[in-house]
């Protein structure tokens, strides 16, 4: 039977795990920055709201994310909502860019 850890051991383990999480967060942010950079390259190629919203592509991405999550032992119910948020934020960024471009004076 496992004995409960003393408070010092418990705190040391918490600190070690939090350090691991901090390192993973740095990796996630770096990957989000890379993904966002690619979206910014793509957004200049899109000419209307339908291309930006691209519902079929969104569904493809969400389906893929769900499969990848399961393949990696992560519940779909965690991965898919996170990606829905990422997609919404990046879609809003693209729409703002499109609307700003539409307001620019034509040459």
Automatic annotation (TrEMBL):
Q: Please give the Pfam families that the UniProt record associates with this protein.
A: CM_2 (PF01817)
The cross-references to InterPro entries, in alphabetical order and at most eight, read: Chorismate_II_sf, Chorismate_mutase-related, CM_dom_sf, CM_II_prokaryot
The Chorismate mutase domain covers 8-98
- Which keywords fit this entry according to its UniProt record? Isomerase
Q: Does the keyword Isomerase apply?
A: yes
Name of the protein in question: Chorismate mutase
């Amino acid at each position: 039977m496992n004995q409960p850890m003393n408070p010092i051991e418990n705190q040391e383990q918490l600190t070690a795990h939090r350090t691991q999480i901090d390192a993973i967060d740095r990796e996630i942010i770096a990957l989000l920055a890379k993904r966002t950079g690619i979206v910014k390259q793509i957004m200049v190629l899109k000419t209307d709201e339908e291309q930006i919203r691209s519902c079929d592509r969104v569904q493809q991405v969400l389906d893929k994310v769900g499969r990848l999550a399961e393949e990696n032992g992560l519940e779909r119910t965690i991965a898919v909502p996170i990606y829905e948020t990422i997609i919404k934020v990046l879609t809003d960024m693209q729409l703002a860019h499109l609307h700003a471009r539409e307001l620019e004076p034509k040459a």
